Structures are given as structure tokens and as C-alpha cells.
Amino acid sequence: MARHTFATTITLSNNVLIETVSKMLGHSDLKTTQIYAKVVDEKMKSDMNALRLRMIEQV
């Protein structure tokens, strides 16, 4: 769980390059690290949808 939190919340969500995160986690294949990036993408989509709904409510 700590590795997941580090990869998603601490690094990728703060614009650390995925290649750097991959090295930090000791992954030999970037595809392994890309799993974490998908989680970040899903969170971003969810957040943007929530923002869109708030904007519609204000109109």
C-alpha cells in the first residue's frame, strides 16, 4: 500500500516523470509503473467530472 501511495499521490500526482518513478520503485519495465499512472488518470477524470457538475450548478 505504501508503494502505491508513493507512486500515485506523492510522485505522479505532483508531476514527477513516470520514468523517474519507475526508477525510484525499482521497476525494470516501464509498463509496471504505468499501472500506477492509470490510477492517477482515473482520479483525474473523476475530479474533472465533479468540477464540471459544480460549474453546471452555478449557471
What does this structure look like?
It comes from Labilibaculum antarcticum. One of its GO terms (biological process) is DNA recombination. Keywords: DNA recombination. InterPro entries: DNA_brk_join_enz, Integrase-like_cat_sf, Integrase_catalytic. The protein is an all-alpha fold and 59 residues long. It has one domain. Helices cover 80% and strands 0% of the residues. The protein has 3 helices and no strands. Helix 2 packs across helix 3. The relative contact order is 0.13.
Write the topology of this structure.
Blueprint: H1 2-11, H2 18-25, H3 30-58
Helix pairs in contact: 1-3, 2-3
What is the chain-wise order of helices and strands?
HHH
- How many beta-strand elements? 0
Structural class: mainly alpha
Count up the helices. 3
The backbone outline, from C-alpha atoms, is elongated
Uncertain segments: none
- Considering DSSP H and I runs of 4 or more, what fraction of the residues is helical? over 70%
* Largest sheet features: none
Q: Tell me the strand percentage band.
A: under 5%
In total, the number of domains comes to: 1
Radius of gyration: 14 Å
Q: What's the N-to-C terminus distance? A: 41 Å
